[in-house]
Amino acid sequence: MSSFVRFENVGKQYHSGDITIDALKDVSFEIEQGELCVIVGQSGAGKTTLLNILGGMDTPTSGRVYLGDAEITAFNKHALASYRRTDIGFVFQFYNLIPNLTARENVEIASQLTKDPIPADVILNDVGLGERMRNFPAQLSGGEQQRVAIARAIAKRPKLLLCDEPTGALDYVTGKSILALLQDKCRNDGMTVVIITHNSALSAMADRVIRVKSGTIVSVETSSSPTPVEDIEW
Amino acid sequence: MVKKGRVDAWTKNNLREIRRTLGRYIAILAIIAIGVGFFSGLKVSQSAMLATCSTYVNESAMYDLRLISTLGLTSDDVEYFNAQDGVVAAEGACFADFLYYNKKGEHNVLTAHSITEDLNHLNIKEGRLPNSPDECVADALLFDSADIGTKIVLSDSNPEDTLSTFKFREYTIVGLCTSVNYFNIERGTSQLGSGSVYSYIYIPIDGFNIDYYTQIFVDLDVDGEIYSDEYDSAVAVHKDELLHKLDERGELRKLALYEEIDAELFAAQEELDAAYDEYEAQKASVEDQLSAAYEDLLKAYDQIVESEQDLIEGERKLVRARAQYETAYEEYQAGLAEFNEQKAQMEQLFASLHSMLDGLEERVIEAIRLYDAGETINIIDILTEYAEQIQSVLDTLEPSDPLYSTLSELLESIQQTIQELDGTETAEAASLLRLALLSIRVAQGELVAYESLAYQELDEYEAQLNDAKAQLNAAAAEIAQAENEIERGWALLEDAKNEFSNGMREFSSGRLAAMKELRNGKRELDNAQAELDLAWQDVYDIVPGLYCYALDRNSNTGYACFESDSGIVSGIAKVFPLFFFLVAILVCTTTMSRMVNEQRTQIGTFKALGYSDTLITFKYLAYSGSAALIGCVLGYFIGIWLFPSAIWMAYGILYNFGPIEYVLDLNLAIISLGLSMICSIGVTWVTCRGELSRMPASLMRPSAPKAGKRIFIERIPVIWNRIRFLQKVSIRNIIRYKKRMFMMLVGIGGCTALILTGFGLGDCIANLAEDQFDEIMLFDYTIFFGSEQTVETIADFEQRSSEYLAECVYATNEQFDYVCKDGRKSLYVVATDDEAINNIMGFADDGVSVEYPERGKAIVSKKAAELAGIKVGDSISLYISDTETVEIEISGIFDNYIYNYLFMTGETYSDTFNTYPVYKVAYATDAQGDTFGTAQAISTFDDVEAVSVVQELRDRVENMMESLNYVVLLVILSASALAFIVIYNLTYINITERAREIATIKVLGFYSNETYAYVFRENAILTVLGTAVGIPLGLLLLKYVMGEIKIDFVSFNSSALPQSYLYTVLISFGLTYIVSLMLRQKIANIDMADSLKSVE
Which of B1004, B1008, B1014 is most worth mutating to test chain A (most A CB atoms within 10 A of its CB)? Predict the structure, then answer.
């Protein structure tokens, strides 16, 4: 059985005037279903590009990307939107909650797009925000906002949860609790989670660590016994 | 150096800023340009029109006053007025209306004017001025180049008076012109034809055949712009003064005319007296001739009688002659018969005598021979027998008869012989017998002698008879001739009689004719005398009443209309620019605050680098200020060019004098600049001040997104729970950005209002003619009679006009002033008792029909009611003199848009004005379907003074209104442009402000259409709301603008048609939709990856 996520010789070039920048060069890797994968690299290493491509927000210049049986690189715009809407859950560094919607509504705006979402109340309880459902983002702390973001991402039962520096804007403790939440989701609900970070300390919590540098994969490591988040220090 | 370098980089940065945000820069520029353009354009339009008019008036040396006297004006008058103080020039002129057949063969009325030298210069558009009196230049508006060289021919149906006014019957067109007397397409009215003048021509004054002027044009020494109060009051002073003098001159002229007429009357009397004398002479000569002829006739009659008597006499003579002839003829016949008898007797006698004597002789000779022979015979017996015979002859004879003796002798001899023989023997006997024989022979001889004698006698007698016969024949011939003569005499007499009776007849008919002719002549003379007598009596009536007028330019329809027409846009100019600037302020505010907001970090950095607040503020002031300045300059010049041109294009149809003059109004430019600076720099400064007051550090932190808030609708679950999720989001978003919402509402609402006003203006204009002429004034003609119409004249007129007119309502039609809120205005008072008035006037108030008033009440048209500030149940006050008024209660107010009317019954009229109503006007409808043909026919009636055709009024109104359509179009287009900029700008800002949010929802998997909908749904809702706000606002604005359009005799029904609402809604929705389409790409271009980035 082939892997859940597959990158095959993926390349991405950006053109800016006469200059061509290779954001990704011949990237190939695989992620198994139910894994928590950490993609780690320095700023400008190409990890965001990788995430964009995997999240259906951008298309590679060359190569193929598969999720399950579907070839994402073969999708047109509409299919990509469809893909984002049903298969992918996003967690952003800056939460990207819609300021004019309450916590619950922020979940609903995503879940109302899918057929069988987890009810907003349930999922918000699940992330520990049962009491703050009716609050607007501005009334929530950063951690709480990120929890809402995670709730929004997983409410629609995505096949893949993509997290872009989920702790980047959070303090250490809060960040940790968020990562714990993600790890729980992976462990308890069997969700495939991909976390992108520049913080290599986080790689300890991963089932698989992919290191990126200058648009290429430096290494892919798998760990049979990842460390629980609580035990990781950075 | 260092400083310079810094400033250079600074400037470079700022310039780069502009280039980078060109869209925003242009938005400010454009909104200011539109605002300024609209403001300056509308404001300057009136000035430009007035300037154009002023130039035209000055270049053409238009008169300041027109002096008119009903008695005409002389060249002395012209000189007199030329010498007056304040008069620069005075010039006499003539004008007269006439009928002519145009190219299409229609009968039209033209006004002919004399060409003036010093004033009212003609503007020759083509061809040349006339060189000879039978040439003319024609109205350039209604004639074209093809008409040059053709002739204007005076129609034969012109009244004699008209024809005698002109020296020629034909005038050759040698050029086309425009004249200051005719500013617009109005050509005036006339007593001729259909009552409306079709066009005009100018001819040299020598082309007229009149020895006086009909008017004097005066150029006054007055200052002041046209239409200005300064000018008007300066003219008014001179006007009063000159009118007074004109009256004096008029009195002089009147006296002169009286003298002239007296002299004329004397001359006429002399002439008439001479004619009487001539008549008498002629009468005498005719009578002489007649009696001579009669005498001749009498003589002829006498002759006839005489010759008749002669003839009778001749006949009588003839009868006598014929009797005589008869007698003579009978005598002759008797004679002839006797002669024939005698002749026969004689012949018988002589024959028997001869046979007897011859027998005797024979016997004797026999006997002698026998005796000689010896034989014996009984001769005696024989002799005896003869003797007896002789004896019997003798018995018949007269003894005087010569035969008698012969025979007697013979007898004796025989008897003797007998005796002697007796017994004698033979020989002897023979001798004896011989003797006897001898005597017989003698007797025979004697008988022959005698016979010839007897025949001789007979012949004589016969000759006598023949003579008588010849005489008789001659007499018969004579008689026959006389008969012929008499017969011819009768025939001649008959001829003479015929001749006489013919003569007699001829004479009497000739006499009758002559008498008749004389009688006619006499009657004519008598009539002439009677007229002359009347003229003597009415000598003061022959000279028309002296009425003098000094008319200023305002009495020139074109000139007066021009002022109100040029003011049409000023109503719009009052409100609209205000609104445009308001929108400009809003757009600048949002744009600049967005810009400042976007550049918080940069501002913070500059502050941190040590740039002064002033310098940083200046950057933004310069940014918006420069955009506004460019926009202002562009807008100003485009505005003062575009609006006057567009409006002039519209009015060009009406006013044909030269191209529009563009006015560079410096004040306006300064005001525009000031306003645009307030809109841009002012707004920017206020925005900047808020931001710059912060510390650099706080500036460098991203400004927190605007916090979400619950909205009031959420507290009403009944509604909130029914709204779909995304709609809830949109609603909350709308309310979240209150400033934007407010601006969208103001922008869309305002523009919707403007667009609706634009359409509404168009509707009102279009409605006016339709409502007025299809709903209210249902009649086709107003017929003005020369005298009051009574029951008899009405019946007579109806009978004559029945083939032309269907309905005819007789009424009074008089102008009165009424008391209104600001002074006095005039209206027409119409009184009639004819129920049919409801057939020719639609009295209704907003669709509800209004009853014709009962006694003591009246109904009034709406605008008059408004101006007077009265409603049903109130009374209207009419001036019956300068100071006195009368009041009438108003029982109804009806819609009417052209002129103002007060309707009442005849009784009400009598009650109110204390005088009975004089019906001199009839409102009529056409029965033929040939509106102008009917007017033509009716106007030829002697009792009809003028016929005014409603269709002509309608055409005039429609023409006037049409020109407003351009203004309407301009308003709609400008408002649409404004709406577009507002919607575009706000939406653009909305999208850029919320780029992150949009990127997020895209990442969340919203399809493109869902994403667009997420953003544009808000626009749609705001557009609906804005339109909803805008429509009532538009109605208010429409009312206001219509109220500002001041055309004296026109009022508007300020309401828009349903389709206008529809168009308005369609345009505002359409604009929103177009903006959406244009900004789709902007949304599509938002990079989802941006959502991952940190907040700038």
Answer: B1004
